[in-house]
Predict the structure.
Amino acid sequence: MQSNTAAAVSGPSNARLVEALTLAATIIVIAVALINNKIDYDRVTRTTAERAQAQAVSMATDVRWY
């Protein structure tokens, strides 16, 4: 005689578990993407600002004799 535990596990609760895991994975992927985007934006902005400042200093200290 077989028990009905296998049928109970593979029923609607299993579908809810898959749905919950899919939602959790989606949230994690979106969070990681947003964090990476923020880090990249900060790095690019900082690099651009440093390059602009270096260019300004270079132009300000450039002495040309004509």
